[in-house]
Design a protein that fits this description.
By secondary structure, the chain is of the alpha+beta class. Among the domains are: 2-100, no CATH class; 114-126 and 555-594, no CATH class; 379-469, no CATH class. The protein has 19 helices and 18 strands.
Length: 601
Amino acid sequence: MYIRAHNTTHKKTGKIYTTYLLVEGKRMKDTVRQTMLLNLGPNFNLPKEKWKIFCLRVQRKLSNEAFLFEISFNEEYEVLVNDTVNKIIARRKQIEEKKLLKPVAKSDVISVNPSAIKVEQIRQVGPERVALNGLDRIGLSKIFHTLGFTTTQANLGMGLVASRMVHPASEWETYRWFNQDSALGELLNIEVTSDKALHEISDIIYNNKDKIEQLICNNLSSIFNAKSIKTYYYLINSYFDTWLNSDEIQPGHSQEKPSDCPLRSLGLVLDNNGFIIRSEIVSGNVSDPNTLEVMLKKLGATKVSQIVMDRDIATASNIQWLREHNYQYIVLNREHEQVFDFSKSLNILSKTNCAIEIYKEITEDQSEASLYCFSQNHDLEESSISLDKAAKFEEELKQIDEGLKNPLCQRDKTKIEMRIDKLFQKYDGISQFYKVIVSDNSLIKSIQEPLLATKITWFNKFFQDNIQKQPATYCIKSNIINLPAEEMWRQYSQLLDIEPVFSIFKADIDFKSLTEKVCTFESHIFITTLAYQCIQIIHKTLQKSGIYTSWESIRLSLASQSTFTVILPTADGVNERVRITSEPEPRQIPIFRALHITRHP
C-alpha cells in the first residue's frame, strides 16, 4: 500500500492541480495489479516523510490483526488514519451492495424465512419523480447539454433544481437530504459528495442565466400559444436568514416577517401563462423608489408595461413615482379593508373553482380604479388567523400578569408597560381592538417604595363584533381604468401563485463553511426561479385533468411513496437483496396518470 500523487488538468480553466491516491498492489502470477483504495483529494496535508507510516497504520487497521510491535504515530495523524479506514470500509461496502442489488426475475423462485426478512435504505421517491417530470417538460436537461455541460454537471444541476422543488433548503441541508432521505441520486445516477459541489454547480448554472431563460422561454412558446403572450412585471421583496453580512442586503418589510428583515429584491417578467421570461435581482428594498427605478430599467420595462406589485412594495411613494413616470400599475391597497357592498358585486370563479365576489369603482377624476374583492374561503381563513393571533396575544398578557405574583420577576411598572408596548407592536393587527390596564401599588406604597405593577387586565369587547360584521375584503388598485374587473383580478392573482414558491428564499445560506465565497445569493435565487418554472408547468398539466391543488399539497401527498432494499435470507444461508418501490396509493394515482408517469420508476 502506498500514496501516489496524480496531476489533473481542469477541463474549463486549464489549471493543473494535484490529487493524492491511496493505492494497493496485489501480485497476480508474474504481474502486480494496482487497485485504488481511496482518493485522498487535493487537500491531503500529511508530510511526505510520514506517508510510509501512514500506509502501514491503515493497512494494519484494515487487516484487523494484532501485532507484536505497534507503530507510534502522532495523535493528530491517528485521527486521519481512522477517518481514512472508515472511508475505505464504507466504499467497499457500497461496491458490494451495488453488486448484490439486482432485480429478481419473474422466473426466480427462492425459499426465505419470513421472520428474518429485513428492509433497509428507505428513500423517498414520489415527489422526486414528479419534480423530474417538470424538468423534462421544460427541457432543462437538453438545455444544459446544449450549453456544454458534462453529463455529470447536467445531472447534478437537475438534482439541485429538483431538490429545491421537493426539499427547499440551503446547499448544506440539500447535501444531507440527498444522501440520507431521498432517492433522487438513484433516479439521476449521481452521487453528491459535498455541499461545495452543489455551490459550484449553482454558480455554473447562474453564469448561463440569460441563455437558460431564453431557451426555456422558447421551449414553453412551442408548448403554449406564442401569439397570445402578454408580459407583466412582478416585484417581490424576500428576506434571508443568513450568516453573511453584506451591504447589498438592506433591511425592510417582508410578508414573512414583521419588519427590519434583511432583504433582496426580485423582479420578474411573466407571460400570461405565469411563466418567467426574465428575472433580475437588485440590492436593497424595492419599497424605495430609487431601487424601483433601477429594477424596472434592468427588466427593460416600458411605459406601456403593466407593473404588478406586492402589498409590501406598493408604498405611497412608489405609486406616486409610477404615476409621475406614466407607468401602468396593479397593486394591493395598503389601507385598512372597507365594508364590502354585495349589491354591486359580480360573482366569478377562481381557477380552483372558489366563488369570488368583486366590483370595480373609478375615482371622480378618472385617474384610478379600485377593485373590491371578497371570498368566503378568504373570509374564513382571515377570521381563523385573527382568532389565533388574539389567543396568542392574550396568552402573553396572561404570562406577564402571572409573573407579577412572583417576587423574583420584574414588577417595575414602567418596564412592564414597555413590555406591553412591544406586544402591541408585535400584534399590531389585533392589539388595536384591546384595551390593557396596568394596576399598581400607588395607593398603598410609602414614599420610599418604588411604583410596582400589581395586576394586568384587558378588554376586547369590539374584537368579536369586528370579525363577524366586517368581512375580510381586500382592494386592488390600478391606473388602467379600462381594464375589465375580472381581468384586473386575474392579473393580480397571478402573484398569489408565485409567492408560495419564493417563500423558500428563507433557507439559511451558510457561507462560513466555505473557504471561498463560491455560492452567491443570485445563483441561489435563480435556482428557485427554475424550480418555479417546473412547478408552474406541472400545475398547468394537472389542471387539464381537473386537478387544482397547491404544490405543497402535491408534495406532501406523494411523500409516502418510497424505494427500499429488501433483504431475503434464503435457506442456503445467502442473503438476496432486492431494490423495489412501493405501490402508489389511490390518492397518488390521478397525479401520476395526469403527468403520464409510470407507477414505478
